[in-house]
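The freezer alarm interrupted the setup, so I double-checked each line after restarting. Inputs confirmed:
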Amino acid sequence: MKQSLAPLRPDLAAIAGMVPAGARVLDIGCGDGALLEHLVTAKSVDGRGLELNQQNVNACVARGLSVVQGDADTDLGEYPSSIFDIAILSQTIQATRRPQYVLSQLLRIGRRTIVSLPNFGHWRVRLSLLARGRMPVTDALGYRWFETPNIHLCTIADFVALTNDAGAHIERALALRASGATHEMHPSAWGPNLFAEGAIFLLAKR
Amino acid sequence: MSDTASPRFLRPLKAPAEHVGHAITFERSLLLDSGHELAPFTTAYMTYGTLNAERSNAVLALHALSGDQFVAGMHPVTGKPGWWHLMVGPGKAIDTDRYFVICANVVGGCMGTTGPGEIDPTTGEPYGLTFPLVTIRDMVRAQAMLLDALRIEQLLCVLGGSMGGMQALQWPVSYPQRVFSAMPIAMAARHSAQNIAFHEVGRQAIMADPNWQGGNYGRSDANPSKGLAVARMAAHITYLSEAALQRKFGRNLQDRDALSFGFDADFQIESYLRHQGMTFVDRFDANSYLYMTRAMDYFDLAADYDGQLAQAFRDTPTRFCIVSFTSDWLFPTVENKRVAHALNAAGANVSFVEIESDRGHDAFLLDEPELFATVRGFLNAAAAAKGIP
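Predicted 3D structure, all chains:
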C-alpha cells in the first residue's frame, strides 16, 4: 500500500471528501478497492469492503485491504447495528435486487450512509427514450437493456423519495456533471434531476 | 509470563538426523481440556528468520494433522522440503528476511513434543492410550507456553491450514490480546459428521491391525504400519478432488499395458495411494494419528458459546483473513464462509478469499500463486498496521 495512488475518479473523490479521517468505514461493492485504498492511505480510516466478485476480492486482499466476498442483497443483515461510522454504496444500488432493503440496512449498520447513483432522469436519457423510442445507452449508462446489471435504475427524484420512505435525513447532496465536476444541490430541485448525470447523498437515520 | 518456569533444554529429539530442531521442557504442567495435567511437558519447535529487538515480528505457523515443526528447509526424517517451503523462506510470501517464523509440533504429536509415543515418567513405559486426549485448544495452550518461554507477548500473525487452520481460529479466541492477525485457511469452526466419519475409518484401520495391540506396540518391535498406511490412503483421497485425480491419473495403468485380472495395483491411482501410505508410516506414529484425528473431531468453537459462533469473536481486536479453495470438499467454502460471516456479525476486521483451484484440500500446501499473493498482502498490511518496518 506504499505505492503512489492513482488519481481517484471524480465521483469517488467527492465521496472521499465526505468521509472524516480515522472513521470506521464499510464500502459495499468496493470493486477493485480504489476508493477503499485511498481512504485507508489518505484518511487513515479503518476500512472494510464487501464485494460480489471474487476476483476483485482477492485482488483487494492482496493489496492489503480487508474485504469479504458477499452480496449486498443478502449479507448486510449480519452486521451489527451502527458498527460503522460510514457505510458507502457507490454506483451499486441500481444493481441490487432489493434497493429499499439495502438502503435500510445501510442506515442501520452505518451512523452515516453515502450513496452514489446514476441519474435516469438526465436529459440525454429522457431524450433517447422520447426521440428514438429505444432504451437509452449513454456514457454514464453504457449497457444495452438485455445485458445491463442495472436492474433498478431511478432518477434523483425517485431516490430522494426512497430516502423519505426509509426514514433517512439527507445531510448533503451533490450533483455529478458529465465533466466530473460536482456541486451542492437541493435534493428536490428539478434542475439536477434533468442535468446531473449522477448524484451523491450523505444520509443519516432520522 | 511471571508464572512461567524458566525453560530447560533437555534432550535432542528422537528424530534420526543431525538437526532436529529445538526442544523445550516445562516444569509447569500443561492443563488439558480433559482435566488431565501433563508434566513435565516438552515442545519441539523450529524457528526461521530473526526476532526483531521489539519482539514484534513473530509469525506462528500451525501445522496440519500429518505435519510437524519443519515448515521450511529440509525435513530430517524424509529428506524432503518442509511442508510449507513454498510459502515460508527468504523473499517468499512469509518472508523470513522480515519475519520470525515459529512452528511447534503440537501436543500429542510425534516429532519430539510430548505425545502418546513418549515415555510416561510415572511408569517408564510409552504412554500409548494412557496419554490423555488432547484438543485443538490444548494445542494452542501449549503453544502459548512456548511463546511465554520465548518472551513473545504478541504474535504478528498466526496462520495455518486444515488442523492448523483450526488452531489459527482458536488462537485469537483463547488469547485475543496475543494475536494481532490470524489467517485460518481451509478449515471449519467445527468438524462435520462426514469428516468425523472419515477419521473413524482411519482409526478403525489402525486398531484393526494386530500389531497395534491396544495401542501398546511401543513396548515391542511391532508397528501397526499396515493399519496406519490404510488410514493415510483413505484420508489422502479426501485431500484431493475428483477433478485432480482424473487429471493426474485417470484410468492410466501402472507399469503395464493391460489389466492383470488380479488385485495388484493395476491403476496408477492405486500405486500412488499405496506409496502415500507406505511413506507415511516411516515418519508418523499410529497412536499420534488417533489423537490428532480425535482432536479435530472434538473441535466445535461455537459449542462454548451456546452455539453462537459470533459470540466467540465478540470484541476481538484481531484482524482476520479466511481462505478457502473452490474444490476443497473436506473443508468446503461454505464452512469457511460461515466463519467469515460470524466475524462480520461480531464487527471484526475480516477478509474472506476463495481461491479457484481444482487440487482439493491439499491446495493450501501447493504452488497456488493467488494464495501466496493473499498471504503476502495480508501479512504486509498487518505489519504496516502494527508499525513494523
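Quick read of the result. Chain B has ten helices and 14 strands.
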